[in-house]
Amino acid sequence: MKPHRIETLDDPRVAVYRNLRDFELRRKQGLFLAEGRENVRCLIERSPLFPDSVFVTDSALEGLRNTLEGLATSVPIFVAEPRVLDAVAGFHLHRGALAAGRAGESPAFEDVLPADSAPSRIVVVEQVAAADNLGAIFRNAQAFGADAVLLGPRSADPLYRKAIRVSMGATLCLPHARIAPWPSALGRLRDRGYAILALHPDPRAPGSRSLEDLDPAGLRRCALVLGAEGTGISAPVLQQVDTPVRIEMAPGIDSINVAAASAIALHALGVSR
Are residues 215 and 186 in the same domain? Predict the structure, then answer.
């Protein structure tokens, strides 16, 4: 391991780290940034994705030494004073560790699903535009043992840096893909043996059931569809699902945050068990 010393962010070797917006990184260069020691460790040790480079402080270099020694010699490790890394985001979010990675081609959504013979739980996100909400959904999906997350065309990019940070690295490790054509491709999940549930708070929806009345043992393969922030499940998607499912709440409360709802539903569906 031969780190390269960086004295200023003007150094062209670390140009990718210089306050570039996620859109510019992802769409124009095909890159993403992972922030924080645990996310950098996750990217290197557990993710199917690969780092292009790593940018750390001396302290983080020592803390991550065992992990960094496993990198290929072609992956440069840049080291700088904390003030230099702080200038990347303007404040200390990264705990002295950043990594730039390349996502490559997005897989077809069928390719991230378990074999048809396997029991399975997956999450389908119709339209979650906020990267922090999407990151929290991924964190919950990983925590409760979901196999994959599928994303509608208008959901945020799970490799935006805020999504990675909030997910605690789950977006780097949990299989995910865009599902298209939307929403008719939900029928292809049904063909793969998935019962399609949608979190929808209106008890008047045809076929609506309370979450607590579901029998997880009777759902061998299940896809849980989450709607948009604010508007929830759209009418075209609701027409594609098998069962609208609601979380019972106190009188006068009609909904909760989509990420919180995902955690409640995934636990009730017995994913971790």
Answer: yes
